[in-house]
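Late entry, written up from scratch paper. The run itself happened at the end of the previous shift, but nothing got recorded in the book at the time, so transcribing now.
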Amino acid sequence: MAQENQISVVIPQETIDEVATKLQECKTALAPFLQALTANERSGLFKMGDKSLPTVQKVKGYTETNPEFMPGYMDKDEFLKDETVVSQLTPIANVLEQLFSDVDDTRLLAGSEALQAALLYYGQVNEANKKGVPSAKPIYEDLKKRFSKK
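Output as recorded:
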């Protein structure tokens, strides 16, 4: 039975090293400005999405043209800083999400094909072991721990 091959690429190690270095540089450059949240903290926040972003940007405009409606307890400078950070990070997040999705899909596909091939190999070793091929036994004993059904 032939195995279907949907992906056949070799990524040069130089490319992997270059990408890893550049990603680390990006992470280092942004680190002083980023803040990690716990799952609890994330769940308690208002979420700005594609629909609310234009509303926030519109309010930003109104705070400039109609400042008389600004509540005294609203910190306009902090609002403007927050809106700017969202506007700056959104295009970066979009690229990262696309990159992550493509990297993860490629890794998933290659991993699936590698696992299928490993199962084929294990099946062949198992058969050889059953037929008493001496060199198959140590390989079978090692691999059966991973491939045995529970």
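The longest helix spans residues 76-130.
(Scratch paper discarded after transcription.)
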